[in-house]
Write the structure tokens for this entry.
Amino acid sequence: MYDVAIIGAGVIGSAIARELSKYNVKACVIEREEDVCCGTSKANSAIIHAGFDAKPGTLKAKLNVRGNEMMDQLSKDLDIPFKRNGSLVVCTKDQDPKGLEELLEKAKANGVPRCRILDREELIAMEPNLSDDVVAALHAPTGAIVCPFHMTIAFAENAYENGVEFFLNTNVEKIEKSDEGYTITTNKDTFEAKVVVNAAGVYADDFNNMVSDQKIQIIARKGEYMLLDKQAGCHVNQTIFQLPSKMGKGVLVSPTVHGNLLVGPTAADIENKEGTDTTQKYLDSLGPMAARSVKNVPLRQVITSFAGLRAHEVDGDFVIGEAADAPGFFNAAGIESPGLSSAPAIGEYLADMVAEKLALTKKDNFKATRKGILNPETLTMDERNALIKEQPAYGNIICRCEMISEGEILDAIHRPLGARSLDGVKRRTRAGMGRCQAGFCSPRTMEILAREVPMEMYEISKSGGKSTYIVGTNKNI
């Protein structure tokens, strides 16, 4: 019997788990994938929004602004790559500039600080590669960028170190009310919990509708992106948005915290909640759409493309709180943009609700900090040489595109909730994220996984399940 069972180990479920781990509670996280950060949390714009876009008075507005405020301290405490680069929402000559004034009024109502509208002269001084058609923009200096992988993994690792149990490769099949709370049937075990927290992304409606007559409907909204090489990373300094439409904030052009350039997303509502394939049609549309705000985007430097699904709830706002007719069942559903920005605040907000429900008390020994994987490039040459002398694995470069050493991969495998797949290593270290997209480092990384986990080579996968690399009938290869 658990006090709390959280369904979903994305950024929302992991943030809730970390906040709950501040209490004296027996809690677990149940995740169907082989790792944390395998759904929407791994395929998004990596933006911490300032909070000017959400309708005042909504949960999106309140939690976006609070989440943004929390990120400076969280990034220090949990060692998360994070940068306040600011953002611009541009208006072109064929658009109504009143749209910027409306956003500025929303920013004021939502409590977003220091937003103002800039004319073209000021903009070009800041961003010389803005389109020739851009005439004005809303500037939000508190906008930021983050690594969504590290953010999710940091929440999960810290929750784990504070006592939360994680059950991976565990698919929830049924939830039923019981005398003491809820019975959760999975493909592996049956769990009993006094409280269930539903943070299941695009599947959150399925679980809510199992126990509540107050139905919700989640639509999978697919967004496709292109990621450009680090040579293109300085094309813009800030995150460049376009005036939003009913489908979202449009195609953005943004640097990443790791020095790449990101272009996207598209927006298309689909029925298949596993539909993360990319399409020629939508990828081809990104260039012309991006050109409306930023000129000469060097699309010949694209190194990969990907797609993610946003959990769009038909009523348009986050669905957070206890279901009225299902006591002890809490939703964190419909968490689309600005979900990543809001995640710390959602964790805080929902954990407070659960703590009040269960009359939980705060721990005296909560560990608030977590140290990420050491990046030798942050050291001086003398410090790096001393590290390699003490631990030679840090001198053995495995991924030459990103200059990732064996030492970093070893850390990724052996740390809390360590990597068990190539994608797990990639999300933690960036080995395989460079120009060759894992073409050269995969065999070496597989050798390290096989030796260190340990596991057989034929068991090693890209991302769990059936995504293995070695095929054939002879498993003694």
Observations:
- The first strand starts at residue 2 and ends at 7.
- The two ends are 43 Å apart (CA to CA).
